[in-house]
Amino acid sequence: TRVDAVLHFASAASPPSYLTLPIETLMTGSAGTRNALELAKRYGARFLLASTSEVYGDPHEHPQREDYWGHVNPIGPRSVYDEAKRFAEALTMAYHRTHGVDTGIVRIFNTYGERMRPDDGRVITNFVVQAIEGRPLTVYGDGSQTRSFCYVDDEVRGILALLDSGVHEPVNIGNPDEFTILELTEVVMDVVGVRPGVVFDPLPVDDPVQRCPDITRARELLGWEPTVSLREGIARTLAWIRTTRF
Ligand code: UDP
């Protein structure tokens, strides 16, 4: 058997999913990562870890560069995901240093688009489904928190470029266009062409206040940058969601 690459993308990734699977999420990031690394070691395959902007926690540096160590609550409800991914990064680097495994680490920032589950629970799918159904958009907190959303085609292109490179250090793959959640409600309502308004719900515990990737490293090492704007990506996501049960 020949194995060229092991891409370790296993994990609950949406906050509502990992909050209902806390121990499973920690075990996927720890024991699951070890299993996947052992496989890569056995076959001499390149290993790519799907990591996350969550390793930066609620960041005190903005935008986030890969050499920022992060600001993570180690015992909060969100830690089951953040710390699992931080451990997974540490284990990946240890396999590289100890066993010489050809490893890579992609830090994925909020990604969305076609084939995402409409009821996944993340913000863009929630807002698009709510707008289609004419229900008010559920803003958590006051909507002043920011995120930087990457369309799935851009994200995949960046991940494949990292896979094909020999880069071992973590690389941010995300779109640096940053929006507040309130700004996002306006874009979604414009694209869907409805004005159902918004309702304000409680902010989840430890929800990061701001998040934006510095993608200098991806530009320099991979020649990669995103090309799909938020408006265009939401239009494509809307077209796709309309072909499902909605
Ligand atoms: N959010 C929101 N309404 C929703 C879902 C999420 O206001 O219906 C907010 C959430 O509190 C966070 C941001 O949107 O500040 C992104 O949330 P998501 O769960 O998509 O991803 P996260 O970046 O938190 O992992």
Intertermini distance: 43 Å
Report the β-strand fraction as a percent range: 15-25%
Report helical residue fraction.
Answer: 40-55%
Bound ligands: uridine-5'-diphosphate
Give the C-alpha Rg.
18 Å
Q: In order across it, which strands form the biggest sheet?
A: 1-2-3-8
Structure description:
The protein is α/β, with parallel strands linked by helices. Helices cover 42% and strands 15% of the residues. The protein has helices at residues 15-20, 22-43, 79-99, 123-132, 152-164, 181-192, 216-222, 230-242, and strands at 5-8, 46-52, 103-108, 111-112, 137-140, 146-148, 150-151, 171-173, 178-180, 198-201. A four-stranded parallel β-sheet has the order 1-2-3-8, with helices on both faces. Strands 4-7 form a two-stranded parallel sheet. It has a two-stranded parallel sheet with strand order 5-10. The model has no long low-confidence stretch (mean pLDDT 97). Uridine-5'-diphosphate binds next to helix 4 and strand 5.
Topology:
Layout: E1 5-8, H1 15-20, H2 22-43, E2 46-52, H3 79-99, E3 103-108, E4 111-112, H4 123-132, E5 137-140, E6 146-148, E7 150-151, H5 152-164, E8 171-173, E9 178-180, H6 181-192, E10 198-201, H7 216-222, H8 230-242
Helix pairs in contact: 2-3, 4-6, 4-8, 6-8
Q: What attributes characterize this protein structure?
A:
single chain, 246 residues, alpha/beta, 4-stranded parallel beta sheet, two-stranded parallel sheet, 8 helices, binds uridine-5'-diphosphate
